[in-house]
């Protein structure tokens, strides 16, 4: 066992090493943009990492226990633009902590429990424009050392413990300050002296947010003579009389936008009294917004009397039962009504109104006509409205309309083709149900329209002239609709200026070759979420301006590489993800193309194989061509082997009996023959063989021994084996009895072919032909080889006459005697005969 002293000597250095092995040395930061942007959020860093390049411009160190920022903590990153130190448990920031960050625009210190903030903590931030110091235990603006940040535009000190609204003297240096957020602090009283600096040096563009401070008192005249861009007072009052008094105390304020009311989840007032807004008559206001007030009633039009000269009014989430006709002398140019629960559609008649927004109101279902002759912008989205006849100038009381949004409504019946609305540039029907859109060219008069959205409108495009007249259109969105037979026809002929086209979720299975021929300026087309089986490039061949093509979420197995070579020359992004790619050798040219065109393909790593099973779910990039090469060799060898074996089997099968004959010739080549001749004949000619041939040859002098199958073949042995072994192997000659029956018999022809092989192997002229009867030449030509042999060789011809028979038998005997070994007695007998 190792002695204790040795064990301690080994462990102590190791533990010392591990104590210095901090997480920051493990390179935990994520490189979002190489050499530019780094995210080190929540990786348990205890100090500023030193392994990030000095070229970094964006650095996120939030949610790390840094706790202490010493001098020149970020000197290694002189190019930083954005620094996020949110919730890093920072308690101390020393002088010159950010020294050297001359280019820093944004600094976030949200959620740090700062206990000591040195006077020179923000020194060196000569370009800082946005400082977020939310929830940092700040109790006063006086002690906040930011007076030298002359470039500061936005200061957010919300959610702190600031009690006084007094703006320090150093604010006179912050001449670029545009936004000051003091929301959710502890400010209760506002005095004239608190705003003295704004009286001395007016910040004409300052926006001030005092929301969520429970204000009890505002000194009358405190804001008199002050000009603000925006003042927000939401959830500031717990009593209606306090709200009324404080609004009156704002007298003399000149503000571009005033925001009053409460937040959805921060309600303090039980009720609303219209008299609370009477003090607005003493303010100069350009835009007014009020939100989230219970029991707000507009039945008495006097509630808006002090707002007659306001240019824009926004009413958000108010309990408005109805909106009576406003006086025509109101100068409102913009009216926004969001979720105000109207029982009936508001009937308006404001000659000056140019913008009207009515959204998220689900109580009134039917649109009534209104008279707004100056209206240019109309947003009626998200109301569930029904339009019985749309759309013409009489429906909206104007001919100047340029923007019309009717998305997320109910049923819209197209009864007119926008007569009198020829100035429209933006039209949105998204997620409403369009009716009668295929009955006529509904957009024919909209020659100035630039943007059209009919996505998810349950439109089934049948009428090819649906988009006629849209000569200026640049953006067309029609996702979620369908076409007849799921075939995309050439319906875009008039859209010669189109740059963006969305055809996703349209169930398209096939695209017409000329569907996009006229879209020469098209830059983006979305064909995702369809049922396309092929990536056909031909419809895009004229789109020389096309830059983005999205074919994701289809059923493409593998495009033909030859077609992919004709992709538009300016194409920079091609999305083929979520398709049914077949990662098989048959498509290896396409799979190799994917690897070669990584720069073009969007999220190429997410292109997955669907088949075969062993590759399912694997990236297309993981396919290897070497596998195909090996497979080709294996397949080629296998195919060649199969062909050789098959050819061998066929040859053996075809020439089996010839091989048997060859083997028999070698075996019986030296033996004496048993028979003088083996007779091949048709069974139809057996009478002649028995009565003439056998009788004259076997009973004559000298006698000849014939081999006849009906007599000499061995029972139980296959016919073919008998023919070869008993017939050819044991006979000197072969007699072939040719007749019409012979030529028509398959067995006879088979025996004749074997006889030819036998004659070739035995190297002798052993075949004797007997023409038993006249055979028609046409029938004889069916056996071309036999026909040729009979033309080239002498044969015996049977004649049924005394002289003919005498000559026939003498010639046949002579042929049989040739090569026959004979005794002297036999020779004498033959000579006498």
TrEMBL record:
Tell me where in or outside the cell this protein is found.
Answer: Cell membrane; Cell projection, Ruffle; Early endosome
Q: Does the keyword Plastid apply?
A: no
Q: Does the keyword Zinc-finger apply?
A: no
**Where does the record place a coiled coil?**
none
Which residue intervals define the domain TIR in the entry? 673-816
Q: Which GO terms describe its biological process?
A: defense response to Gram-negative bacterium; detection of lipopolysaccharide; inflammatory response; innate immune response; leukocyte activation; MyD88-dependent toll-like receptor signaling pathway; regulation of tumor necrosis factor production; toll-like receptor 4 signaling pathway
Which terms in the Gene Ontology molecular function aspect does this entry carry? lipopolysaccharide binding; lipopolysaccharide immune receptor activity; transmembrane signaling receptor activity
- Bilayer topology term: Single-pass type I membrane protein
* Stretches that traverse the bilayer: 633-657
Q: Which UniProt keywords apply?
A: Cell membrane, Cell projection, Disulfide bond, Endosome, Glycoprotein, Immunity, Inflammatory response, Innate immunity, Leucine-rich repeat, Membrane, NAD, Receptor, Repeat, Signal, Transmembrane, Transmembrane helix, Ubl conjugation
One annotated Gene Ontology cellular component of this protein = early endosome
Q: What is its main location?
A: membrane
Q: Which PROSITE patterns match?
A: LRR, TIR
Give the PANTHER family listed for this entry: TOLL-LIKE RECEPTOR, TOLL-LIKE RECEPTOR 4
Which family does the record claim for this protein? Belongs to the Toll-like receptor family.
The protein's name in its UniProt record: Toll-like receptor 4
- Source organism per UniProt: Trichechus manatus latirostris
Upper lineage is: Eukaryota, Metazoa, Chordata, Craniata, Vertebrata
